[in-house]
Amino acid sequence: MLKKAAALFLVGASLATWVGCGSTSSRYLYASIPVSNEIVAFREDPNSGVLTQLVGSPITAGQAVQALALHPSKKYLYAANSGEDTVSLFTISSTGVLQEQLPRTSTGTGPNLLAIDAAGAYLYVANSGSFDLSVFSISASNGALTPVQIPAGNPVPLGMSPINMALSSAGILYITGSSSNGVSSNGLIETYTLNQGVPTFTNLYLTGTNPYGLAITPAGGFLYTANNVDDSLSEFTVASGGALTPLASSPIGETYSGPVALQINPSGSYMYVADEGSGNLAAFSIGSDGGLTLLTSSPFTTAAQPATIGIDPSGKYLFVGNQKSPAIQSFSVDTGDGALTSVSSYGVPYTPTSIVVTQ
User: Which domains does the chain have, with CATH numbers?
Assistant: First the structure.
């Protein structure tokens, strides 16, 4: 999710090195910090979910670095710099060190969202200021970006300011936003098919107001939005061509307020909701029909104003970025029933807006 958020700074870093306390783990967590133009880097212990800040972290990034995207090869990290209309490319060493490869690549105005296809061949950049989508091919040899030649032009107009963006396993691009007639606002979902990186608009769907959260199940069968103003969650089935159909139960009202971020675990069994207004995470099981059922153990307390969520590839640990008391919290996940148990909280100087975790 990508609205507001916070990054991380670890206690007990006196023993930390870029290798990370002598562990052989190669799993790393990165968080963007727009206020300070930095990326914070941690080693994650895959056996405990404990984070250790790397020596040399945080590192300098572009102005108002907003969103991060990890290449499938885990060799490259891309960062959208919303304050200077560029994307940065960082190489990732075997010890988690980030090294920026200059020059930065120009985008549209206010890049705030990133998505990479499963093959790692194309990067999609949604620009909130110019209401459009920049598309780049990714070099297999060094991760460098090249604008894709699109007959109608690149960037591609969206007709709305993008709020969130996600790519399904079937290669369908979904972008949420909103429109206003001066009296009321409608939450929107735009869908695009992709052919050699070129997006083609296919349909427009209505959802709740201010759909900040967006998540798709790993198998691609269901899509959800978290509607911040409505305090609701919208549920959709996804057809083979990417078309969306609301479930009969959709939208479902939340007991908690201000949902802003969604995270589905790797197995597609559970979905977690960051409720910014309530200061907690709500957890739901996902039924075979895509319906959501609130877990009896839910909600789980966080620091004030949780706003972004990340999960490690094993699905055993979940990380939450909080903004009012800037921190990242680590939770262990019971893969049997979806319950969360707090591991620790790591204070950071400012709010993180994006969290990614390597293998």
Answer: 13-357 (2.130.10.10)
